[in-house]
Amino acid sequence: MKPALVIAAHGSHLNAESSTPTFSHADTIRATGAFSEVRESFWKEEPAFREGLRTVDAEEVYLVPLFVSEGYFTEQVIPREFRLEGWDPDLWESDGTSASDASLTAGDTGQTVHYCGPVGTHDSMSDVIVQRAKSVTGDPDVGEGFGLAVVGHGTERNENSAKAIEYHADRIREMDRFDEVQALFMDEDPEVDDVTDFFESEDIVVVPLFIADGYHTQEDIPEDMGLCEDYREGYDVPTEVDGHDIWYAGAVGTEPLMADVVLERAADAGADVSGAIDQVRDRTRGADPATGD
């Protein structure tokens, strides 16, 4: 029997759309036939983490966290709730952005679980951020004449939160595609509120490194940047702010190419999914992020 894939995401009791990207990416991967089963599992929704492996028949499972950074959820909550025996964060040998994978046994089901690092720190996430810029501008060659802001939450409770944002901003800067690339944050300096202060480029693409659209991406960030006074009134894309055109992309996790990152994580842990990766890339590059078509 082929191994199974379980995608572990946060979910939300307050935002019904929080789980939508998880189900969408799972559907994309399921269609490739690379795994015997593809299951979604959530911290704040059903099916819950603690039941995630009990719904899977396969004896071998690849467990991929659909989270942005390494920290509390990926190092404590998920391993505990999935009952991964012998788990220790040191098994990932990570500096905060370089988590790999660890093969463990699930204490209650006996399954072999290849526990992968979060999607948010994988190198291929940089490609998804660029793809997000292409999607929001409608320009497959977007870059020259544009600035790019990669936006994260930022928090003193998890220093790795900022590391993930800075890591991808640095990688994209090294591509020499955009005229300027900046890492900005909601709750620490440099703040996204002052986005136009950090760019000379007339056009600025803003991509939040969040898995799903919710309160922060749909309300806080647009209002903080001055795209609107009240998010309920909506805003144009682009919107002119302080002489700059702001192309606000919304959460990167809604980009269809995110399914590729999930597969890349599984591949790094030993899954035979090269054909599935090619399928997903062919299908999702240039797809409409709202529909996947």
Helices, strands, pairings?
Layout: E1 4-9, H1 20-30, E2 38-42, E3 60-65, H2 72-81, E4 84-85, E5 101-106, E6 112-116, H3 125-137, E7 146-152, H4 159-175, E8 180-185, E9 203-208, H5 215-225, E10 239-241, E11 244-248, H6 258-268, H7 274-284
Helix pairs in contact: 1-6, 3-4, 6-7
Morphology:
globular
Taken as a percent bin, the fraction of beta residues is 15-25%
Structural class: alpha/beta
Q: Taking Cα atoms only, what radius of gyration do you get, to the nearest Å?
A: 19 Å
Instruction: Sketch the major β-sheet.
Output: 6 strands, mixed
Strand line-up across the major sheet: 2-1-3-6-5-4
Total count of strands: 11
Rounded to the nearest angstrom, the distance between the terminal CA atoms is: 31 Å
Unreliable segments of 5+ consecutive residues = none
Domain tally: 2
CATH architecture level-2 label of the largest domain: 3-Layer(aba) Sandwich
**Mean pLDDT value:** 93
Helix content: 25-40%
User: Which CATH class of the largest domain applies here?
Assistant: Alpha Beta
Give the ordered list of helices and strands: EHEEHEEEHEHEEHEEHH
CATH topology of the largest domain: Rossmann fold
Q: Count the DSSP helices.
A: 7
Task: Summarize the structure in words.
The chain is an alpha/beta fold. The protein folds into 2 domains: 4-121 and 255-284, Rossmann fold, CATH 3.40.50.1400; 125-253, 3-Layer(aba) Sandwich (Rossmann fold). The protein contains 7 helices and 11 strands. The protein has a 6-stranded mixed beta sheet. A 5-stranded mixed beta sheet has the order 8-7-9-11-10, sandwiched between helices. α1 links the parallel β1 and β2. α6 runs antiparallel to α7 (274-284). The radius of gyration is 19 Å and the shape is globular. The model has no long low-confidence stretch (mean pLDDT 93).
